[in-house]
Amino acid sequence: MVIPSIIANFAENIDYLLMIRILLIICMTIFFLAPIEVKASTPGYMAGVMEISVDNEPVISYTEGILTVTGAEGQTMEVVSLTGKKVMSLTIESPAQKIELNIPKGCYIVKVGKVVRKVSIR
């Protein structure tokens, strides 16, 4: 075949390290040009904190004492301690509800619908 012979001739006439560099550039170009879809949970979050949501599932995030629940209007949110004691329960009333958690430091389980997240209060 013509193509393998062209590649073989090219490989004979080029430095091995240069060939590796060319392959690396091609792989990096393909990687960086590939389309990526990421959904932001709510605008205004701290840089570096990102939630990726599955369609039609609520997003639960916690930042600096504020628990934000997005996409769960009408559903019930429960906060449970690691010992199983229910600490808080309320109905989400808005599409993006912010809840100030005034509970003692520790780890808690937050459940909204079928979505469950661990939250660490410091």
The largest beta-sheet arranges its strands as: 4-3-6-7
Mean pLDDT: 77
> How many H/I helices?
2
Percentage of residues in DSSP E strands: 25-35%
Bulk shape: elongated
CATH fold-level assignment of the largest domain:
Immunoglobulin-like
CATH H level of the largest domain: which superfamily? Immunoglobulins
- Low-confidence runs of at least 5 consecutive residues: 37-50
Largest sheet features: 4 strands, antiparallel
Q: Output the CATH class name of the largest domain.
A: Mainly Beta
Description:
This protein is an alpha+beta fold and 122 residues long. The protein folds into two domains: 2-33; 59-121, Sandwich (Immunoglobulin-like), CATH 2.60.40.10. The protein is 25% helix and 34% strand. It has two helices and seven strands, in the order H-H-E-E-E-E-E-E-E. It has helices at residues 2-13, 16-33; strands at residues 59-63, 66-70, 76-81, 86-91, 96-100, 106-112, 115-121. The strands form two sheets. It has a four-stranded antiparallel β-sheet with strand order 4-3-6-7, with no helix packed on it. Strands 1-2-5 form a three-stranded antiparallel β-sheet, with no helix packed on it. Strand 3 and strand 4 form a beta hairpin. It is elongated, with a radius of gyration of 25 Å. The protein starts with a helix and ends with a strand.
